[in-house]
Design a protein that fits this description.
The chain is built from one helix and 20 strands. By secondary structure, the chain is mainly β. The strands form seven sheets. Strands 6-14-13-10 form a four-stranded mixed sheet, with no helix packed on it. Strands 5-8-9 form a three-stranded antiparallel sheet, with no helix packed on it. Strands 7-12-11 form a three-stranded antiparallel sheet, with no helix packed on it.
Length: 204
């Protein structure tokens, strides 16, 4: 009597039994009668392919995050989440970096990098791209001759101050061009609508 029990980690096993020169194969896990000399073979499903998601994501600013996931498909057509088991890599760490958990972050304001997930000799990849814009503008401050007290506004105009893109870690210095005017240029700004704000809190 040969009893084949369930094998941890696998849904199905394959076993064979030689009976008097005749080989009997069965894909099901169950009890079989075997007389005489026999052998028992258990074959685990093998990894056939890996799928990486999302496919070809586009990030909108330096520092933008992206979580990747890897799903493995096996020889018995079963699937399993391999996100924390595969080896992740970025072809250009100057554009994007990625950790062992598949969490990536944009490291530049433009370019693309191939993100690869690998397990043994099986791998899959996708392309992470960066698409950003450059925003330029002029800031005009009221001065004391317009009825304002010469305090914060005159100071910002003379010293320049800073502008921040809300929702990101992007800041840029304002370059003064006169006592009441200044210019700025911000690279790596996300596409779409945005809000610029002085670090002191005045919204442009």
């Amino acid at each position: 009597m040969v009893l084949v029990g369930p094998v941890s980690g696998y849904d199905r096993i394959r076993w064979s039994c030689d009976v008097g020169g005749h080989r009997d194969d069965d894909d099901q896990c169950r009890v079989r009668q075997c007389h005489g000399q026999h052998d028992l073979t258990v074959t685990a499903p093998t990894l056939s392919s890996i799928a990486v998601a999302p496919v070809d994501p586009v990030l909108g600013y330096r520092g933008a995050p992206q979580q990747f996931r890897a799903t493995g498909r096996y020889s018995d057509q079963s699937t399993r989440d391999l996100t924390n088991e595969v080896t992740w890599s970025s072809s250009d760490p100057a554009v994007a970096v990625i950790g062992a958990d598949g969490f990536a972050r944009a490291a530049a304001v433009s370019g693309s990098s191939t993100i690869r997930a690998q397990s043994g000799n099986v791998s899959a990849s996708t392309t992470l791209s960066l698409r950003t814009a450059t925003v330029s503008g002029e800031v005009v401050f009221p001065d004391s001759s317009m009825g304002w007290k010469p305090s914060l506004y005159d100071y910002q105009a003379r010293e320049g101050g800073k502008v921040r893109v809300l929702g990101t870690d992007i800041t840029v210095d304002i370059v003064p061009t006169s006592a009441t005017r200044g210019t700025f240029s911000i690279a790596g700004v996300p596409w779409g609508s945005l809000t610029l704000q002085f670090e002191e809190g005045g919204v442009l």
